[in-house]
Amino acid sequence: MKNLVLLTILLLSPFALFAQDEEQKEKPKDGWTKSGNVSLLFNQAAFNAEWQGGGISNIAGNGSLVYNMNYRKGKLSWDNNIIADYGLTKLANEDYVQKTNDRLELTSLIGKQIKETNWYYSGLLNFKTQFDSGFEETERTEIVNGEEITITNRTRITKFLSPAYLLVGPGIMWKKSDNLKVNVAPASARLVFVDGQFTDPNDPRNRLDANNAYFGVDAGDTLRFEFGAALNGYAKFKVMENITLENILALYSNYLEDPQNVDIDYTANLIMAVNEWIKVNLAFQAIYDDNAIQGFQIREALGIGVTYGL
Description:
The strands form three sheets. Strands 1-2-3-4-5-8-9-12-13-14-15-16 form a twelve-stranded antiparallel β-barrel. With 310 residues, it is mostly beta strands. Strand 3 and strand 4 (98-113) form a beta hairpin. The chain has one helix and 16 strands.
Protein backbone atom coordinates (compact mmCIF):
# COMPACT_ATOMS: atom_id res chain seq x y z
CA MET A 1 0.00 0.00 0.00
CA LYS A 2 2.80 2.44 0.91
CA ASN A 3 4.51 1.75 -2.42
CA LEU A 4 1.29 2.45 -4.31
CA VAL A 5 0.76 5.73 -2.46
CA LEU A 6 4.35 6.78 -3.19
CA LEU A 7 4.01 5.85 -6.84
CA THR A 8 0.73 7.76 -7.10
CA ILE A 9 2.45 10.88 -5.73
CA LEU A 10 5.30 10.46 -8.22
CA LEU A 11 2.90 10.06 -11.13
CA LEU A 12 0.96 13.15 -10.10
CA SER A 13 4.11 15.26 -9.80
CA PRO A 14 4.29 16.23 -13.51
CA PHE A 15 0.81 17.76 -13.23
CA ALA A 16 1.78 19.79 -10.15
CA LEU A 17 5.22 20.81 -11.42
CA PHE A 18 4.06 22.09 -14.77
CA ALA A 19 0.87 23.71 -13.56
CA GLN A 20 2.93 26.68 -12.45
CA ASP A 21 4.57 26.92 -15.88
CA GLU A 22 1.25 27.22 -17.72
CA GLU A 23 0.98 30.88 -18.62
CA GLN A 24 -2.28 32.75 -18.54
CA LYS A 25 -3.80 32.73 -22.00
CA GLU A 26 -6.60 34.60 -23.62
CA LYS A 27 -10.06 33.34 -22.82
CA PRO A 28 -10.83 30.50 -25.25
CA LYS A 29 -13.39 31.23 -27.94
CA ASP A 30 -16.73 29.48 -28.07
CA GLY A 31 -17.22 26.60 -30.49
CA TRP A 32 -15.35 23.47 -31.51
CA THR A 33 -11.59 23.02 -31.43
CA LYS A 34 -10.37 19.92 -33.26
CA SER A 35 -6.85 18.52 -33.54
CA GLY A 36 -5.06 15.23 -33.94
CA ASN A 37 -2.60 13.24 -35.95
CA VAL A 38 -2.18 9.93 -37.72
CA SER A 39 1.24 8.29 -37.66
CA LEU A 40 2.64 5.25 -39.46
CA LEU A 41 5.87 3.60 -38.32
CA PHE A 42 7.67 0.91 -40.31
CA ASN A 43 10.78 -1.11 -39.42
CA GLN A 44 12.55 -3.85 -41.36
CA ALA A 45 15.80 -5.80 -41.08
CA ALA A 46 17.11 -8.61 -43.29
CA PHE A 47 20.14 -10.93 -43.03
CA ASN A 48 21.28 -13.51 -45.56
CA ALA A 49 22.47 -17.01 -44.67
CA GLU A 50 26.14 -15.96 -44.74
CA TRP A 51 25.74 -13.11 -42.25
CA GLN A 52 27.94 -13.83 -39.22
CA GLY A 53 27.07 -10.93 -36.96
CA GLY A 54 23.91 -12.47 -35.59
CA GLY A 55 20.35 -11.27 -35.97
CA ILE A 56 16.96 -12.39 -37.22
CA SER A 57 15.21 -10.97 -40.27
CA ASN A 58 12.06 -9.15 -39.25
CA ILE A 59 9.43 -6.70 -40.37
CA ALA A 60 7.26 -4.50 -38.17
CA GLY A 61 4.68 -1.77 -38.51
CA ASN A 62 2.60 0.41 -36.21
CA GLY A 63 -0.33 2.74 -36.82
CA SER A 64 -1.57 5.37 -34.38
CA LEU A 65 -4.48 7.80 -34.28
CA VAL A 66 -4.90 10.52 -31.66
CA TYR A 67 -7.81 12.91 -32.10
CA ASN A 68 -9.24 15.61 -29.82
CA MET A 69 -12.61 17.34 -30.19
CA ASN A 70 -13.16 20.05 -27.60
CA TYR A 71 -16.23 22.27 -27.35
CA ARG A 72 -16.79 25.40 -25.31
CA LYS A 73 -19.78 27.69 -24.92
CA GLY A 74 -19.74 30.20 -22.10
CA LYS A 75 -19.11 28.25 -18.91
CA LEU A 76 -19.70 24.87 -20.58
CA SER A 77 -16.64 22.77 -21.50
CA TRP A 78 -16.79 19.41 -23.31
CA ASP A 79 -13.56 17.55 -24.11
CA ASN A 80 -13.46 14.36 -26.21
CA ASN A 81 -10.39 12.27 -26.93
CA ILE A 82 -9.80 9.16 -29.07
CA ILE A 83 -6.62 7.06 -28.86
CA ALA A 84 -6.13 4.12 -31.23
CA ASP A 85 -2.86 2.17 -31.56
CA TYR A 86 -2.11 -1.07 -33.35
CA GLY A 87 1.22 -2.66 -34.24
CA LEU A 88 2.53 -6.00 -35.54
CA THR A 89 5.90 -7.64 -36.00
CA LYS A 90 6.98 -10.80 -37.80
CA LEU A 91 10.25 -12.63 -37.10
CA ALA A 92 11.59 -14.86 -39.85
CA ASN A 93 12.03 -17.85 -37.53
CA GLU A 94 8.52 -17.70 -36.03
CA ASP A 95 5.26 -18.97 -37.51
CA TYR A 96 3.03 -16.31 -36.04
CA VAL A 97 2.73 -12.55 -36.30
CA GLN A 98 3.10 -10.89 -32.88
CA LYS A 99 1.32 -7.83 -31.57
CA THR A 100 3.56 -5.00 -30.44
CA ASN A 101 0.83 -2.51 -29.61
CA ASP A 102 -2.96 -2.66 -29.26
CA ARG A 103 -5.12 0.00 -27.64
CA LEU A 104 -8.50 1.66 -28.14
CA GLU A 105 -9.64 4.31 -25.68
CA LEU A 106 -12.41 6.90 -25.77
CA THR A 107 -12.76 9.63 -23.14
CA SER A 108 -15.49 12.26 -22.82
CA LEU A 109 -15.33 14.88 -20.07
CA ILE A 110 -17.99 17.56 -19.69
CA GLY A 111 -17.76 20.43 -17.22
CA LYS A 112 -19.66 23.51 -16.01
CA GLN A 113 -17.37 26.28 -14.81
CA ILE A 114 -17.78 27.42 -11.20
CA LYS A 115 -17.90 31.22 -11.31
CA GLU A 116 -14.74 32.70 -12.86
CA THR A 117 -12.35 30.03 -11.60
CA ASN A 118 -10.45 27.05 -12.98
CA TRP A 119 -12.87 24.68 -11.21
CA TYR A 120 -15.75 22.87 -12.92
CA TYR A 121 -18.57 20.53 -11.98
CA SER A 122 -17.92 17.56 -14.25
CA GLY A 123 -19.11 14.29 -15.69
CA LEU A 124 -16.70 11.63 -16.97
CA LEU A 125 -17.14 8.76 -19.42
CA ASN A 126 -14.22 6.51 -20.33
CA PHE A 127 -14.18 3.34 -22.43
CA LYS A 128 -11.14 1.22 -23.24
CA THR A 129 -10.38 -2.14 -24.79
CA GLN A 130 -8.13 -3.61 -27.51
CA PHE A 131 -8.69 -4.34 -31.21
CA ASP A 132 -7.28 -7.83 -31.53
CA SER A 133 -6.69 -11.09 -29.67
CA GLY A 134 -3.67 -11.50 -27.43
CA PHE A 135 -1.86 -14.82 -27.03
CA GLU A 136 0.40 -16.48 -24.49
CA GLU A 137 3.00 -18.96 -25.67
CA THR A 138 4.14 -21.82 -23.45
CA GLU A 139 6.61 -24.60 -24.16
CA ARG A 140 6.75 -28.23 -23.10
CA THR A 141 9.09 -31.10 -23.97
CA GLU A 142 8.02 -34.50 -25.29
CA ILE A 143 9.94 -37.64 -26.20
CA VAL A 144 9.22 -38.61 -29.81
CA ASN A 145 10.96 -41.68 -31.32
CA GLY A 146 13.52 -41.51 -28.56
CA GLU A 147 14.31 -37.83 -29.13
CA GLU A 148 13.36 -34.90 -26.95
CA ILE A 149 11.52 -32.18 -28.83
CA THR A 150 10.03 -28.84 -27.75
CA ILE A 151 6.36 -28.16 -28.45
CA THR A 152 5.02 -24.62 -28.30
CA ASN A 153 1.40 -24.02 -27.32
CA ARG A 154 -0.31 -20.75 -28.24
CA THR A 155 -3.30 -19.83 -26.05
CA ARG A 156 -5.65 -16.87 -26.57
CA ILE A 157 -5.80 -14.79 -23.38
CA THR A 158 -7.65 -11.64 -24.56
CA LYS A 159 -9.73 -10.52 -27.53
CA PHE A 160 -11.75 -7.55 -28.78
CA LEU A 161 -14.04 -6.33 -25.93
CA SER A 162 -12.57 -8.94 -23.56
CA PRO A 163 -11.70 -7.28 -21.35
CA ALA A 164 -13.41 -3.94 -21.92
CA TYR A 165 -13.85 -1.21 -19.31
CA LEU A 166 -16.62 1.42 -19.10
CA LEU A 167 -16.40 4.08 -16.40
CA VAL A 168 -18.93 6.87 -15.72
CA GLY A 169 -19.33 9.25 -12.84
CA PRO A 170 -19.90 12.84 -11.68
CA GLY A 171 -17.11 14.81 -10.10
CA ILE A 172 -15.14 18.01 -10.05
CA MET A 173 -12.45 19.17 -12.47
CA TRP A 174 -9.57 21.62 -12.28
CA LYS A 175 -8.78 22.87 -15.78
CA LYS A 176 -6.19 25.47 -16.65
CA SER A 177 -6.37 24.75 -20.37
CA ASP A 178 -7.03 21.92 -22.83
CA ASN A 179 -3.45 20.82 -22.16
CA LEU A 180 -3.56 20.85 -18.36
CA LYS A 181 -6.44 19.39 -16.34
CA VAL A 182 -7.26 17.01 -13.49
CA ASN A 183 -10.66 15.43 -12.84
CA VAL A 184 -11.79 13.64 -9.66
CA ALA A 185 -14.94 11.48 -9.68
CA PRO A 186 -15.46 10.22 -6.10
CA ALA A 187 -18.65 8.26 -6.88
CA SER A 188 -18.07 6.52 -10.20
CA ALA A 189 -19.31 3.21 -11.55
CA ARG A 190 -17.05 0.93 -13.58
CA LEU A 191 -18.15 -2.08 -15.60
CA VAL A 192 -15.71 -4.79 -16.72
CA PHE A 193 -16.90 -6.85 -19.72
CA VAL A 194 -15.38 -10.19 -20.77
CA ASP A 195 -16.18 -13.01 -23.18
CA GLY A 196 -17.92 -16.00 -21.60
CA GLN A 197 -15.35 -18.46 -22.97
CA PHE A 198 -12.74 -17.07 -20.58
CA THR A 199 -14.90 -17.54 -17.47
CA ASP A 200 -16.69 -20.81 -18.28
CA PRO A 201 -15.24 -23.52 -16.00
CA ASN A 202 -16.35 -26.16 -18.50
CA ASP A 203 -14.62 -24.50 -21.46
CA PRO A 204 -10.99 -25.63 -21.86
CA ARG A 205 -10.21 -22.16 -23.22
CA ASN A 206 -11.08 -20.46 -19.92
CA ARG A 207 -8.48 -18.20 -18.28
CA LEU A 208 -9.70 -18.39 -14.67
CA ASP A 209 -7.00 -17.56 -12.13
CA ALA A 210 -6.36 -18.87 -8.62
CA ASN A 211 -9.31 -16.79 -7.37
CA ASN A 212 -11.58 -18.42 -9.96
CA ALA A 213 -11.88 -15.13 -11.84
CA TYR A 214 -10.71 -13.48 -15.07
CA PHE A 215 -9.81 -9.78 -14.81
CA GLY A 216 -11.90 -9.81 -11.63
CA VAL A 217 -14.99 -11.26 -13.33
CA ASP A 218 -16.17 -14.37 -11.45
CA ALA A 219 -16.48 -17.79 -13.06
CA GLY A 220 -19.65 -18.12 -15.12
CA ASP A 221 -20.15 -14.33 -15.40
CA THR A 222 -19.40 -11.91 -18.22
CA LEU A 223 -19.73 -8.66 -16.26
CA ARG A 224 -18.24 -7.18 -13.11
CA PHE A 225 -19.66 -4.08 -11.39
CA GLU A 226 -17.40 -1.80 -9.40
CA PHE A 227 -18.14 1.43 -7.51
CA GLY A 228 -15.36 3.72 -6.44
CA ALA A 229 -13.27 6.84 -6.97
CA ALA A 230 -11.53 7.82 -10.20
CA LEU A 231 -8.83 10.41 -10.85
CA ASN A 232 -7.83 11.38 -14.38
CA GLY A 233 -5.10 13.85 -15.27
CA TYR A 234 -3.69 15.24 -18.51
CA ALA A 235 -0.62 17.45 -18.97
CA LYS A 236 0.98 18.33 -22.29
CA PHE A 237 3.76 20.86 -22.65
CA LYS A 238 6.84 21.77 -24.66
CA VAL A 239 10.13 20.54 -23.24
CA MET A 240 11.99 22.63 -25.81
CA GLU A 241 11.55 23.65 -29.42
CA ASN A 242 10.08 20.74 -31.47
CA ILE A 243 9.91 18.44 -28.40
CA THR A 244 6.61 17.82 -26.62
CA LEU A 245 5.89 15.66 -23.57
CA GLU A 246 2.40 14.33 -22.95
CA ASN A 247 1.36 12.77 -19.61
CA ILE A 248 -1.87 10.79 -19.21
CA LEU A 249 -2.82 9.42 -15.78
CA ALA A 250 -5.80 7.36 -14.63
CA LEU A 251 -6.30 6.06 -11.07
CA TYR A 252 -9.21 4.01 -9.75
CA SER A 253 -10.08 2.63 -6.31
CA ASN A 254 -12.96 0.16 -5.96
CA TYR A 255 -14.83 0.80 -2.70
CA LEU A 256 -16.53 -2.60 -2.87
CA GLU A 257 -13.36 -4.72 -2.82
CA ASP A 258 -9.79 -3.97 -1.68
CA PRO A 259 -10.03 -0.15 -2.03
CA GLN A 260 -6.37 0.10 -0.99
CA ASN A 261 -5.34 -1.62 -4.25
CA VAL A 262 -5.45 1.41 -6.53
CA ASP A 263 -5.54 0.66 -10.27
CA ILE A 264 -2.97 2.77 -12.11
CA ASP A 265 -2.64 3.53 -15.81
CA TYR A 266 0.08 6.05 -16.67
CA THR A 267 1.33 6.90 -20.15
CA ALA A 268 4.10 9.29 -21.18
CA ASN A 269 4.60 10.21 -24.82
CA LEU A 270 7.71 12.13 -25.82
CA ILE A 271 7.28 13.50 -29.35
CA MET A 272 10.26 14.96 -31.21
CA ALA A 273 9.50 16.63 -34.54
CA VAL A 274 12.23 16.40 -37.17
CA ASN A 275 10.07 18.34 -39.62
CA GLU A 276 6.39 18.70 -40.52
CA TRP A 277 6.14 15.05 -41.60
CA ILE A 278 8.84 13.10 -39.79
CA LYS A 279 8.55 12.56 -36.03
CA VAL A 280 10.20 10.42 -33.38
CA ASN A 281 7.87 9.06 -30.69
CA LEU A 282 9.04 7.52 -27.42
CA ALA A 283 6.18 5.97 -25.41
CA PHE A 284 6.18 4.56 -21.89
CA GLN A 285 3.15 2.99 -20.21
CA ALA A 286 2.82 1.48 -16.73
CA ILE A 287 -0.33 -0.36 -15.61
CA TYR A 288 -1.14 -1.79 -12.20
CA ASP A 289 -4.34 -3.84 -11.89
CA ASP A 290 -4.25 -6.64 -9.33
CA ASN A 291 -7.28 -8.26 -10.99
CA ALA A 292 -5.13 -8.83 -14.08
CA ILE A 293 -1.74 -9.67 -12.55
CA GLN A 294 0.05 -9.12 -9.24
CA GLY A 295 2.60 -6.66 -10.55
CA PHE A 296 3.22 -3.81 -12.96
CA GLN A 297 2.67 -4.17 -16.68
CA ILE A 298 5.26 -2.10 -18.55
CA ARG A 299 5.25 -1.11 -22.23
CA GLU A 300 7.98 0.84 -24.01
CA ALA A 301 8.01 1.80 -27.67
CA LEU A 302 10.33 3.87 -29.84
CA GLY A 303 9.38 4.69 -33.39
CA ILE A 304 10.36 6.96 -36.27
CA GLY A 305 7.76 7.49 -38.92
CA VAL A 306 5.48 9.68 -40.97
CA THR A 307 2.91 11.76 -39.09
CA TYR A 308 0.03 13.66 -40.62
CA GLY A 309 -1.71 16.37 -38.63
CA LEU A 310 -5.52 16.46 -38.71
